[in-house]
Amino acid sequence: MKPINYIQQKKRSTRSFEKIFKLKQNTQQKIWLYKFPLEILFYINYYITGYEAIEFSTIVPIEAASCNRAFWKILETNKLDKINIEFPQDTRSTYQLIQDELFLKDSGRRYLTFIYDGFSYEQFMKLMCCWNTDSFRTYVRLHSYSCYHLYPTLPVFPLFRYSFLLNYRNLNPLENLLFRLCRPTNECQKPILVNNMNEFLFNLNNKFCFDVIKSWINFSLFVLAGKFKSFFLLLKYVWYMTDLGGSVLNCLLKNGFDSSLQDLDFFWLGGSLHLFENAIGRFKRMAYSKIVEERNVPGLLTEFLVDVKEKRKLRIQFIFKRKNINISSILYAFDIDIVQVAFNGFTVLTTHSFIEAFATQSFICYNLTNDIRDVPHYLDRCLKYTSRGFNWLCPILYNDSLAQKPLVRGRRLVDYSFLDFYYNVDTYHIQRTFLNLNFFVYRQLLIESG
What we know:
The protein is of the alpha+beta class. The chain is built from 19 helices and 18 strands.
């Protein structure tokens, strides 16, 4: 599967559709399109794929993209077919292969050795014509359950270009079928999104002194993204894990949270580890007089404590994940959908998972298991976002008695999976459950929900 992003996908737009989009600039022609019967507009929309379908819906009645029956009709073909994946050889004997799953020893994690065709990039683009349906809104929240091999192919897009998708909505019947409320949000003001890019940059400058450091960062090689776990080497192969990040999300909120303990996490996009080290050298030369402290985890990250202003120190991390990686790989690998958002120096990029998480004021954590040994990987972070106004959704079969704050706090652990498969695992087979549904099941759920 060839890596792709929003920009590459837009370059392949046909000239005919480009002409259609220009109708947005002509009010008379837009009114003319509204005179078409809805059945005709729906038929046209049915054969438009990708973001062109969303663009088309902005110049015709939105009902043209609101047919749940069409969603399930498109998805039905080969949806449960398996695209097999070649995993790296397990030289440490830390995994056990059972049927189609790799089990991580001393853990409850199970990694599928295939990707469902129903969640492939090609299906994603076809289903975009149904973007205004409950089915599609649920579907896009499940892609991060896939193995990381799929992530480079999935689309990211400019947040403020499609900000109308962020309108608040309640959880739909399909989301309520797959998930339940694990922890209610604390009593606090609900998150409110900024209106435009200028307001985002104002928050970024105000909270993180970005205007001071931006000239030190080469954004052709790095992207500022939402979340990372910091690993400081204490003993050989033993790591202490602390939670960082959420800075982009914080700056997107009018009523953001305390940024005094937050870091800026810059993820590498520029190629080999050697080039990464050269870029770090350039940053050190640019910020030499401001650097207070430096820490390194070879082959993974470099961290600086920088004195940006009087009485204001900022921690900056540069993270090297893989040699060949794109923004999609980074965002879809984040294990909480509400932080799947990034800033590339010019615009804010996001996933559809983030859009639906923000619209419902809820989040899904993609690495839950019923094994107590896995709790340190997610508990503190999930409880943190419930305190920030977001409801925590967990799979129906998740044992939420594990989600107790003092249960396993500050524990040292050995974590091999980060280097291999990242954290996201479909332990409860959420994707398969969704693909086994159909339009008639959805209609029955809709009737039962009133």
